[in-house]
Amino acid sequence: MALRNDSTAGIVGQDPALRAVLQAVARIAPTRAPVLVTGESGTGKELLARLLHELGPAPAGPFVAVNCGTLPREIADSELFGHERGAFTGANARKLGWFEEADGGTLVLDEVGELPLDLQPKLLRVLETGRVRRVGGNGEVGVKVRLVALTLRDLPRDVERGRFRVDLFHRLAGFELVLPPLRHRRGDIPALAQRFLEELAPELGPRTFDPAALTWLASQDWPGNVRQLRNVVRRAATECAERIVSEALQVPGKGYGAAVPEGDADDPGPHRLADAGGPRHIVPPSGSGDLLMLGEQSFDEIERFVYQWALRRYGGSRRQAARALGLPRSTFCDKVKRLGIA
Question: How far is CA 322 from each of CA 301, 304, 306, rounded to the nearest angstrom?
Fold first, then answer.
């Protein structure tokens, strides 16, 4: 299948790495095989899942996207597979699970690495048999669903540490698509920024970029990737009447959406990942006295470090810490609880 420019589900860019991913989508989409999409937060993983659906064998079917990272353990089984009336206290009626809701279409499991370990074999069975058993049910129900799993976690490492089943990983990763971070495709930044302005025009009116503003945007690392860039453009478009200048984009200390100028060690926005050769490390703002070598720590240890640093930086305020990391407060609080951070 050839991929047309008007069939990219809003994904903008001509970077060779991104175009290679899109061409792979064109080859994979006509099948119903599971797909694993990996990439940093904000790179557009759900957009890619949407493209797989639109180019797939059942584009008119349902598209159901859910986040496993915010799923309470006690209801995870019911949410995935549904339940029968009377299956447990409070089950007053039959409930269809996500697989049945997505029957005939696509089910997107965001943050699939957060799925409880004891539910992973049940997910594997559905993928292999195409049948689900509701909680409290005696029989199975057939479903025809294209599963797209999204994650920013290092699943192979989670497999090694016993946090993710190896058989499920191999089932999901038969087709794996890796989205490059925005800092690796800087040439796409001006086109993305222009697209965001066009999307905002019905709400805010027409805007244009000063050429220096586009140059400045393309020079930044964007740790929050496309999502962060979109928020920065929205904020600047709101503040500028007609022409967006670079000064309107450079607002350090505003939390999520504030771009991080290179060398600005005092900026309290999202943590930065050094891309230089050698061991990678997280460098929080100067004065914190903290440094974490990525190559020497597990993923959970890295997460715990970042969340603890954000809470210290903002005096224990979860709202401000979540905003600084570019997360909804509810997601931040769920992560803090999971990581055992007081």
Answer: 18, 13, 11
